[in-house]
Amino acid sequence: DNWTALLNAAQNGNLDDVRTLVEYGAKIEHCDCGQFTALMWASYEGHTRVVDYLLSCEANVDAIDEHGISSLSWASGRNHVEIVELLLKAGASPNLCDKNDTTPLIWASRRGHTQVVDLLLQYNATVNNIGMKNMTALLAATRGGHGETALCLLQNTSIDIKVQDKDGQTPLSHACAQGLTDVVAELVRHHAYVNTVDKV
Question: Which ranges does the UniProt record give for the ANK repeats (predicted)?
Fold first, then answer.
């Protein structure tokens, strides 16, 4: 599987072992068969101190795996808030798309990770990128029933509230289906079109 001692230590969050291995010449950017680096494994598993150390060793913050997914996308989708902040401060791109054109913001929005969404927006994440299943962040949040996340996204003045997914559903349609009353009110206040017909 192309594994090394460093990858094992990073995946398991063993900071002392990671530090020792790096000091004795372990290759920080070595990848396993899925193109995961040590930083990516630590970000995926939520090992904040290991991430912090690897960043101090100038690990490639925007390395991607075989699916084009970055450390920031993994941390965003798994709600590792402190790691997301560390990666962003280290210069990680908030708009790096994977092979499905999905950004960290969409990953966080589809799972209702509002703190992460707020952080990404502070670092100028693009709000209207269309990713997997023709979803924007707002479509993903409303479809998933994540009202708080949707309201956070709606604070961004550039957000497209009339966007439609592959079935012709809008954020308003999804919000109504999910019973997100506050989101429905906010969308209507922002002049969402109330008579859109879907394609189903």
Answer: 1-33, 34-66, 67-99, 100-132, 167-199
Long-range Cβ contact pairs of 72-75 (< 8 A, separation 24 or more): 72/43, 72/96, 72/104, 73/98, 73/102, 73/103, 73/104, 73/107, 74/40, 74/43, 74/44, 75/43, 75/44, 75/46, 75/104, 75/116
Strand, helix or coil for residue 64: strand
- Which domains occur in the chain, in start order? 93-200 (1.25.40.20)
3-class SS of residue 180? coil
Can you give the length of the chain in residues?
200
Residue pLDDT, tens place only, 46-69:
999 999 999 999 999 999 999 999
What tokens appear for 45 in the block?
């598993």
What are the structure tokens assigned to 143, written together?
């479809």
Of 21, 78, 16, 81, which Cα lies nearest the Cα of 45? 78
Query: Distance (Å, rounded) from C-alpha 3 to C-alpha 147?
Result: 41
Q: Count other Cβ atoms within 10 Å, centred on residue 87.
A: 29
pTM of the model: 0.94
Question: Whole-angstrom Cα distance, residue 146 to residue 109?
Answer: 8
Any bridge partners for residue 70, and if so which?
64
